[in-house]
Write a structure and sequence with these properties.
8 helices; globular; about 350 residues; 3 domains; alpha+beta; Membrane-bound Lytic Murein Transglycosylase D, Chain A
Length: about 350
């Protein structure tokens, strides 16, 4: 009863905070380890497309506020009963709901603290089990997570084509090295129905230097990034990834010299994810690693317009994304949609 009174007071007062059930003091630490230790209260401060809400004032819409409160109720119930929310059968739906709320917080300063807590204390613990463990979710109500029984002659890549995944991502989800090609006959794999559920979306925030990566509407990872220098800014807008390359050559935009991927003068690292030029409005823009001065990799305005990442992060993003093919009649095709949006 005391917790309910506290929540009502906070809502009426027009601000949000984390509150400890049974006490009014804010709680720090790992929310998954303390039964009922915290809850979100989104109030008067505030897909690829952010859900509706009053972005100017920082308000969540009534529907999203209700969704957030219900998500917190389900999370707290798991914790109170001694269950890990990330291993609960409702984890996919819980992650999808938190991700829906997260998208409404982008570029809203009044929601920045809430955004950080949703990411670090809710979604990243969920995504660690959802996307990077072989734990399977039977009876997933979202329909996103499926099970695939390996048949004679199947390989990770052929399975990935059917579902809209890279074989590397399939391997990561079964806790194997990304390039593993071995499967056991009859092995049950956890896979994503990415073709059916919107594919992949990368939200790049230039001002806060991060990229949020989604699969099927659920946050998978948040990466630190670097962006274009003041004189060569990263363009804003949406574009599909139309090239996914490992160990690419790099052409120096100033000298025109071409350097192989393992040449120390090649700044790209091992990964190149190119954005469609006619959609982003500029040639040669993409996401990639960085072999130069580490201090110029992320959290800086220093590139020629591309989105820079730390090399291990760029390689993980490569593994999550899917192959791209070009065909004489169909043009460029993706196994599943890969959309990148760059915002201020």
């Amino acid at each position: 009863m005391k917790a309910f009174v506290i929540i009502v007071i906070l809502v009426v007062g027009g601000w949000f905070a984390w509150t400890k059930w049974g006490g009014a003091d804010p709680v720090e630490g790992d929310a998954t380890e303390q039964a009922g230790d915290s809850a979100f209260n989104a109030v008067d401060d505030g897909d690829a497309e952010p859900p509706e809400g009053d972005q100017a004032s920082g308000d969540l819409s009534a529907d999203l506020e209700a969704l957030l409160k219900d998500s917190e109720r389900r999370w707290e119930l798991c914790v109170a009963e001694g269950r890990d929310p990330a291993l609960d059968k409702q984890a996919p739906k819980l992650a999808l709901d938190y991700s829906t709320v997260l998208k409404a917080t982008y570029n809203v300063p009044a929601m920045k603290e809430m955004q950080e807590r949703i990411v670090t204390e809710r979604l990243l613990p969920l995504s660690a089990k959802l996307f990077f463990s072989k734990y399977r979710y039977n009876d997933d109500e979202t329909g996103i997570f499926k099970q695939h029984k390996v048949a004679q002659g199947e390989r990770p890549d052929s399975i990935g084509r059917d579902y809209g995944m890279s074989y590397q991502f399939i391997n990561l989800m079964r806790e194997r090295p990304a390039e593993d090609g071995e499967l056991k006959l009859g092995e049950n794999l956890k896979v994503l129905a990415a073709k059916e559920h919107g594919g992949y979306y990368v939200h790049v925030d230039k001002g806060d230097y991060f990229a949020d990566v989604y699969a099927c509407g659920i946050l998978v990872k948040r990466f630190a990034v670097g962006v274009g220098a003041i004189e060569t800014p990263s363009p804003l807008g949406k574009a599909h990834i139309d090239m996914r390359s490992l160990e690419p050559d790099w052409t120096d935009p100033n000298s025109g010299e071409v350097y192989a991927w393992n040449d120390e003068r090649n700044l790209l690292g091992r990964v190149w994810l190119r954005l469609k030029a006619d959609e982003i409005g500029q040639d040669g823009i993409g996401l990639h690693g960085y072999n130069g001065n580490p201090e110029q990799a992320v959290k800086v305005q220093a590139s020629n317009g591309c989105i820079r990442m730390r090399n291990p992060d760029a390689e993980l993003l490569y593994n999550i994304m899917v192959p791209v093919g070009y065909y004489p009649t169909e043009g460029f095709l993706q196994r599943a949609k890969m959309l990148v949006e760059i915002v201020e």
